[in-house]
Structures are given as structure tokens and as C-alpha cells.
Amino acid sequence: MNKKSATFIAFLAIVIGYSLYGCSSKKSNDEVRKALVSMNKAIGNRKQAFQQRELREDSLRAALDTLIGNEKLKAAENLAFHFTAVNVDSAIKYYSCAEDIAKDLNNESALLQCKAHKLSMSTFLGDLYKASELFEKIDTTKMTKDDLREYYAAGSRLYLAFASYVTPEQAGTSLDKGKICAKRHLELSEKDTPEYNYVEAVLAELDGRHARAIALASDALENKQPQSIYHTWCEELLGAIYLHENKKDEAIIHLANAVKNDANQGHQIGNGARLLANLLIHEGEFNQADKLLQLALFNAVNSGDKMRFSQAVTLSPEITDRYRGTNNVARMIIISLAVVIAICLAFIAWMMAKIRHKDRIIDTLTKKNTEACIEKTTYIREFLNMSAIYLEKMEDYKTSVQKKIKSGKLEEVISALKSGEIFQSQSETFYNIFDRAFIHAFPDFVKDVNSLMQPDKILVQTQPDLLTTDLRLLAFMRLGVDDSTVISRFMGLSINTIYSYRNRLRSRALNRDTFETDITKVG
Questions:
Q1: Dihedral angle sign, alpha carbons of residues 50, 491, 12, 140
Q2: How far, in Å, CA of 199 to CA of 233, rounded?
């Protein structure tokens, strides 16, 4: 089996730093609009795509349960590869399953390459330094040619993903290692295949050979059906290249095709939606950009891709402000026109007798508009506050690390990275800001929740601007996040703990059977 999964992250190192300004247009507006319409149609049909994908997953799981020996090992690897485009935790789970099968078969070579793929997937969870450290300890002298090819494929994903998540100053070494792995992968791969052309195109673009990269990626597109994952990766790569060459329309078309292909296949691990949203917002396509940003966030949450979620959440505050500001202007124009028309009709029909009524309407609209502006300001302030806190803590952390390195305290730096202290601090900051924003949006939430509880088992809010663990769990459910696995990741608790909390809360409710449905309607 050619899993071929590892190299698709390579192009991320290319697209992160590309500017989205000053793009010139060569494609017709009709072609761009056609690509976006086709993309939106696919996004609208994602539910059916998810159902079809789940059927494929059930089929792969069923095959895994019925096979033995090397065939069972290949089936586990197939299932793991499938999930590399769908869900990080599931991909890691089935690579672990493949490891266990390889161990039972005394196939150390297969075991090591599965371990390499599992470590490369863990970069999506933020385990960058630990994954890199463990990857470099793998003994490649015991691996077959095919497994060694997969090892280098996993390495290119790990190091180039690492380079895309850190600052340019930190990315140099990882980028070099990723390119070395990609080159070794090519040396061990069959030439003139979509896989080979794609990896070679990535390397060409990293080396600044744009024309060669475009030719190779285009050739790979012509030799593969849209259902192939390579079709999507080549579309994203071409979109990134055309952005770099200031060819806006070509970039939009290829990125829209990538998003469409992901939607048609039910895939959730991809970068096309975020990149296209960032491009369209600068072109004034605010509604389309907002839909794509929401899609990127949805995919990041449901795939368990913490790093991609972080990138989507921190998308330029300027972009968010421009979008909301423009929408508010449009809304105000519509409201103003409606008021003017109403005033004119009132003046003609009822003259001075209806002036007082007109004034009441204007006062009501003014009050609502003022309240809306206050709401907008509050949420933007909370977002900027979170961003400022994050940047300040990162600067403090960087300064601390530099001081420790200069004083020879490298072991303390490594220990701090492994302890996850910084992520715990960021989680607490997130909870505080989330609680304040949620309580502001739903000021009667606690009272409404307690109306669903037995009188002697109500929930007590210990601090007016913070939520307890029980209330925070219910807050996520009120926002439509119902999956216990997703909730467990956001709250930093095990899934079993989340199940226990939910069961305990239902037992305290007046109506246990409808309690969770009732929660989605409060506020």
C-alpha cells in the first residue's frame, strides 16, 4: 500500500508567509465566480459527503476486523491514512493499532515507520518539540526500502509543519531537515507518478523555482481524478504559488477547487478555507470570507487540529474589524433608507399628526443600534484583549528562554517545554475571556439553567464574571458544541470525566430526558 500521506503538509511552509495584497487579475470574473459557486454548492452538501465518508470508514473498520497477518497490518495502515485527512486523534489511534499488529508479526521495520507517521501527526496537536525529538531517535538501519520511504515522507510532514508553526527565525533548521527528508523520499519513490510530481513541485517551490513547481503540480492534476487526495493538495499548492506571483484570480480558482474537493470527500484537515478567506476579505468579499472562516474553524475543531484552530482563531483582528465594520455600514444604510421612506410616507399621509409616532420609531431604532454597537465593541475588545495577553505572554516566555539559554540552563528550557506549563496558562486565559464574553452574551444563562434544575440541586455561580466547570460545560452545549470528545479537548478534561459531568447534570434536572435539548434553547 502506498499511503503517500506524509508529504502533503510540505506546502504549508510555503503559504504561511505569502502576501495577499496587490494581486493582478488574468482570469475572467466569470471563471472566478463559477469556481466559488461550485465550491459553495459542495460546502452546502457536506452532510451527504460526511455520511458517505462514514460509510467508507465503516467498511475499512469491518475489513480490519476480519483480516489477519500482513493483510491486517495493511488494512490498519489504510485506515490510518484515511484519517490523516479527517481526524488527528483517529489517525494516531490507527497508526498505534498498526504498530501493535507489526509488533505481533515481529515486523520491526513496519513498526518503526508507523511510529514515524504517528509522531508526524502529533504536530497537529502542538507536540512539536517532543515529536521532533522522538522522531530523530528512530533507528532507520532496520527498515526496508518501502518503510524507509514512508519514514522520510513522515519526516517531511513533521519538519515542514514545524517550520510553518514557528517564527521565521526558528524555522530555518526544521525547514532544512524537511527538505532533506522530502528529497530522500523522492529518491526512494517511483518517478512520473502524481505523488512524485507533487513532492518534487513542493521542493521546487521551496527553492524558488516557481515555473517548474507549477508545471509539476499541473501535471499531477491532469493525471488524477478529483476524488484523489493529491488533487486537493496540488490545488492548494498552485493557489499558494499564484498568490506568491500576485495572480489573484488564479489563486482564488485553485483554492476554491481545493475547498470544494475537501467538502466533497468529507475531509476536515486542510488549509484552503483559511487561505481563501484571508484572500477574499482583502478583495471586499466579506460574506464569502466569513463563511470560509467559519468552515475553517468548524473543520479545525472537529478534526482535533489544535494548531490549525489556533491559526484560524488568531486571523488578523484587522480582517475581523473590516468585515464587521463593513457589514454594520451596510446594515445602517438599509435601516436609514427604511426610516427615511417611513418618514416621507408618514409626512404625506398623516402630516403633523404622526410626527410623534415617527419620533418614537427613530428613538427605538437608535437605541437598538446603540446596543448593537456596544455588543460589537465588547466582543472586539475581548478578542483584542485575548490577543494582547497572548502576545505579551509569548514575549515574556521568549525573553525567559533566551536568558536561560544564555546562562546555560538548557535543561530548564527543555523541562518547561515538556511540562506544558505555557499551554496551561493559555488555557486559563482562554477560560476567563470565554466566560466573560459568554456571560455578556447570555446574562440570564445561570438563572435559566437553574429553572431546569430540581429546586434543591441548582448550580451556584461562585463569581459573577466566571463560570464553574458545570456551567462552562453547559455553555459549550448552548453554543452547539455537543460532541463530548470536542468538549474534553477545550476543557482539558478526559472524555470519561465529561461523560460523568453530563450524566450528573442530567440527574439533577427536572426532566432528565429533555435536559440537554432544553439547554440549547435557554438564554
A1: negative
A2: 10
How many Cα atoms within 13 Å fall on the side-chain side of residue 179? Answer: 15
Q: What is the mean pLDDT of residues 468-488?
A: 88
**CA–CA gap between residue 176 and residue 215 (Å, rounded):** 24
Question: Taking Cα atoms as reference points, which of 252, 259, 226 lies closest to residue 46?
Answer: 259
Reported confidence tier of residue 448, pLDDT bands at 50, 70, 90: very high
Helix (H) or strand (E) holding 63: helix 46-66
C-alpha cell at 405: 539559554
SS3 readout for 420-462: CHHHHHHHHHHHHHHHHHHHHHCCCHHHHHHCCECHHHCCCCC
CB 86 within 8 A of CB 71: no
Which amino acid does the sequence have at 239? G
SS3 assignment, position 371: helix
Work out the burial of residue 161: count CB atoms within 10 Å of its CB; fewer than 13 is exposed, 13-18 middle, 19 or more buried.
Answer: buried
Long-range CB contact pairs, 334-343, < 8 A, 24+: 335/365, 335/369, 339/365
Band of residue 398 on the pLDDT scale cut at 50, 70, 90? low
Which residue, 329, 390, 269, is CA-closest to 12? Answer: 269
CA-closest candidate to residue 110, choices 143, 64, 66: 143
CA distance 86 to 91: 8
Reported as a pLDDT band with limits 50, 70 and 90, residue 13 is very low
pLDDT in tens, 199-238: 888 888 888 888 888 888 888 787 656 667 777 888 888 8
Angle subtended at Cα 228 by Cα 198 and Cα 294, rounded to the nearest 5 degrees: 95
In terms of Cα–Cα distance, which of 418, 409, 405, 401 is closest to 130? 418
Task: Give whichever of 138-142, 170-174, 338-342 has the largest mean pLDDT.
Answer: 138-142
Return the minimum-mean-pLDDT range out of 164-178, 237-251, 283-297: 164-178
For residue 354, what are the CA distances in angstroms to 340, 350, 360, 363, 424?
14, 6, 10, 14, 61
